[in-house]
Write a structure and sequence with these properties.
The protein has five helices and five strands, in the order αααβββααββ. By secondary structure, it is an alpha+beta fold.
């Protein structure tokens, strides 16, 4: 069995490597094998995918371009969203962090009066425990 297998491998490599300077690999044939189709259509398909990627990137940039910096202008459903950000200042250790709306909702916890004030956008700066929280910005609509 070993001899037959070695003979087949030797025959394959000697047949395929003898004429090609780059080790027997024809670039066009390799591309056709990889793509599973003729190379011209794969290039067209790739260009189409790149164009759709560019269009989605442009749409995403347009969404991100809508940055709201006034707390009163945010829709009520976006007050505690991931795309709304707040500055969280802890005076005890003098550190400032940026947190999103979901994290703020967790920090407020069971303080329903503060929750309602923030949700109705009547306060843009408030205390949560010892920390001072202020609205920073909201991205997208």
């Amino acid at each position: 069995m070993k001899d037959t297998k070695n003979n087949l491998n030797d025959e394959f490599f000697s047949k395929n490597n003898s004429h090609k300077p780059n080790g027997g690999i024809d670039p066009k044939a390799a591309e056709a094998l990889i793509c599973g189709e003729n190379p011209a259509s794969s290039v067209a398909r790739l260009e189409q995918q790149l164009e759709s990627l560019r269009e989605s990137k442009i749409r995403q940039d347009e969404l991100n371009a809508k940055i709201l910096t006034e707390f009163a202008n945010i829709p009520e459903q976006k007050v505690f969203a991931k795309s709304t950000f707040y500055k969280f200042f802890n005076p005890k250790n003098k550190r400032e962090f940026v947190i999103d709306g979901v994290m703020l909702e967790g920090k407020i916890g069971l303080d329903s009066s503060l929750y309602e004030k923030v949700k109705s956008r009547s306060v843009a700066m408030f205390y949560v425990g010892e920390a001072i929280v202020s609205f920073y910005k909201s991205i997208g609509m």
